[in-house]
Amino acid sequence: MRLEGTAFGKRNAKRLRREMTPPEVALWLALRRHGGGLRFRRQYAAGDYILDFYCAPTRLAIEVDGEAHSRGDRPTQDAIRDTWLRDRGILVLRYPAVDVLNNLDGVIAQIMAIVIER
C-alpha cells in the first residue's frame, strides 16, 4: 500500500525539509551513513501527516519528538496519527529529541535492529 500525501502536505514537507531541527539533522545524517542500503525519506508526506523519516521497503516511520510533543493536545494528536499509520501497516518509532542528541549511536542501533527484523 502506498501512502499518498495531499498537495498541501507535499508543499509543507518541502518546507520542513529546509527547516529541520538539529536532532532531525543528526538522525538524518546517521541514517544515510548507517541505513544498511535502505533509503530513508525525510519529512515525507503521508495522507494529512508529515513523517520525520520514512522507509518504504520496511514500512517504518521514525519520529523525533521535541518537548512540544508532551504538551497540550499533542499527545492525543500523535496517538491519532500513530493509529492512522498503524492501520496502514506502518510501524512508528518515536524518540525524544534529547535521546537523539545524547545517544545517537544507541538510537541508530535500535532502528537498524528493527529494520533487520522487518
UniProtKB/TrEMBL annotation:
Keywords: Endonuclease, Hydrolase, Nuclease. Residues 10-114 form the DUF559 domain. SUPFAM superfamilies: Restriction endonuclease-like (SSF52980). It comes from the Bacteria. It holds the Pfam family DUF559. The keyword Ribonucleoprotein does not apply. Gene3D superfamilies: VSR Endonuclease (3.40.960.10). GO terms for molecular function: endonuclease activity. The keyword Nuclease applies. PANTHER family: BLL0828 PROTEIN. This is Very-short-patch-repair endonuclease. The lineage of its organism: Bacteria, Pseudomonadati, Pseudomonadota, Alphaproteobacteria, Sphingomonadales.
